[in-house]
Amino acid sequence: MRRLLLLLAGALLLASCGGSDDGAVGDSSATEPGTPATTSPTPSPTPTTPPPLAWGPTQDEFDRAAALVANMPVERQAGQVIVARYSGLEPPVGQIEQLGLGGVILMGDNVESPEQVERATAEIQQAGGDRGYPVIVGIDQEGGTVARIKAPATEFPAYMTLGASRDTELAAQVAQASGEELRGMGVTMVFAPDADVTTGPDDPTIGTRSASSDPQVVAETVQASLGGYAASGIVAVSKHFPGHGSVPADSHEELPVQTASLDELRARDFVPFQAAVASGAEAIMVAHIEVEAVESGLPSSLSPKVIGLLRDELGFDGLVVTDAQDMAAISDGYGSGAAAVMSLAAGADVVLMPADVESAHTAIVDAVASGELPADRLAQAATRGVALMLHEAAGPAPDPAAVGSHEELSYQESLGGVTVVAGACEGPLVDGPVRVVGGEAADRVRFDEAAAAAGLSTDANAPTTVRLLGGTEPGSGDVVVALDRPYALGGSDAPVKIALYGRTPGAFRALAEVLAGTSPARGTLPVPVSGAEQQGC
Q1: Within-domain flag for 225
Q2: Whether residue 136 is found in the same domain as residue 261
Q3: How far, CA to CA in Å, does 261 sit from each of 267, 299, 314, 440?
Q4: Where are the annotated coiled coils located (predicted)?
Q5: For 117, 252, 305, 496, which has the most beta carbons within 10 A of its beta carbon?
Q6: Which domain does 222 fall in, by range?
Q7: 179 and 317 part of one domain
Q8: Which residues lie closer than 8 Å to 373 by C-beta, 6 or more apart?
């Protein structure tokens, strides 16, 4: 049924575009010269609403977007396809106004507090002027190690927590809650969920940002998350196609090379993205990864063949976003202008974070003038972005009161995922006071607070040691707790070993209750851990 809906939506889109994939709206009622007119059926007394497109916006929103873009000069269309980063707390209102930027992304140095973010996003929207649709305000807010906005907004643990819990209903609730908080601060696009399949300790980039090493677990978790984000009204961007969890290098630092065959990629890395497309994903981010089996020598984000796989084989017709173009995988080999033009020509719709925004903008305009970048390709890219922002504006009204209101849900997420790899599955795991060591100072403070609330006393001289692990070294103690990746647990000789996948207040609350025996540990290892005594309870 879902495939039928996708095909129907694709047919509607093609009809609205005059049978071509150029984003221009045609008149489906027109007949070719010499074709006899046909008698129209009697109209229904009750008007019907066209079904939504398979990737988010309605047909009406897409048509309105195409009309808006058709009236833009090339210079504004070129601005529309750029989402820029900026430095400091003051948003680049002049750049948004002058170049007609499609949007900006908030990074860590752009965030001071939820209140400051709300003020900044209001200024950004004001700088957008009377364009008739919102400016994209994007952010990486995955939970865990990748979250730009911290407390007093709700902190959620790493995405792997949901892979450990295998609870798709909870995944949907968490995504909706996170989306509601972000929209309450004026954010319109979130670069999440992470649809990568991690392949273990040799994955240096993704780790707990992935739900699991099992493609089906990742697929089901991503589908649930997309439903939650859609309910909140935020635009979600699944990432990083064709899959960043199975390459042994970090694209922030170099160009990773994917050596797996296309059949291997289809059986592993593509599975969550195919599920995302089937669920109506609005946007997908393409990584800077060279895929030898598809197009050797080019990053995926610049590759017509890799983006062609996403479009043609996976059937995705929504917004394609590049990964950040100031990453070394792009910036070390291509100038900002060349990378922007190549990515658009390859089929991307949004150029994210070019190292030099003005150079990227100028290069796009010049490429259209020279014919290097077809004008209808630029218009198509701009139309998709505008359509999604029209769709976002039609969603639930943002509620600033939602910010920071989901601490209990964050705790429930961690409690569902906490995994006992060694030790008893019932009753207290410690006897008497404990001494907490390791981790960061903030981790130990949060553990002490959570332990006190759970009735578990802490004492610097206690004989029972709880060691918090933030890295890859196994560590020793009576209890060893992995706060991020669980792989180090396999090499530890501790009698009790726990995978927590987070260091939020809710995660430490769940940990303290499991140690005290007042709450069960329900998680199952979402990745293989060599040397682990058990997969969970």
Answers
A1: yes
A2: yes
A3: 10, 16, 17, 41
A4: none
A5: 117
A6: 83-100+110-119+128-336+346-354
A7: yes
A8: 341, 344, 345, 364, 367
- Considering the domain architecture, whether residues 87 and 231 belong to the same structural domain is answered as yes
Same domain (yes/no): 431, 511 = yes
pTM greater than the 0.70 cutoff: yes
Domain count, the chain: 2
Whether residues 235 and 96 share a domain: the answer is yes
Same domain for 206 and 292? yes
Per-residue pLDDT of the chain (537 residues; tens, 9 = 90+): 333 333 333 333 333 333 333 333 333 333 333 333 333 333 334 444 556 789 999 999 999 999 999 999 999 999 999 999 999 999 999 999 999 999 999 999 999 999 999 999 999 999 999 999 999 999 999 999 999 999 999 999 999 999 999 999 999 999 999 999 999 999 999 999 999 999 999 999 999 999 999 999 999 999 999 999 999 999 999 999 999 999 988 888 888 899 999 999 999 999 999 999 999 999 999 999 999 999 989 999 999 999 999 999 999 999 999 999 999 989 888 999 999 999 999 999 999 999 999 999 999 999 999 999 999 999 999 999 999 999 999 999 999 999 999 999 999 999 999 999 999 999 999 999 999 999 999 999 999 999 999 999 999 999 999 999 987 888 889 999 999 999 999 999 999 999 999 999 999 999 999 999 999 999 999 999 999 999 999
Question: What is the C-alpha separation between 408 and 154, in angstroms, rounded?
Answer: 9
Alpha helices in 128-214 (DSSP H): 160-165, 168-184
| Catalytic annotation, residues | 252, 323
Burial status of residue 427 (CB atoms within 10 A of its CB: 0-12, 13-18, 19 or more):
exposed
Q: What are phi and psi of 82, to 5 degrees?
A: -110, 130
Q: Pull the structure tokens for residue 171.
A: 């995944």
**CATH code, domain with 423:** 3.40.50.1700
Distance CA 392, CA 370 (A): 34
Do 267 and 166 have their domain in common? Answer: yes
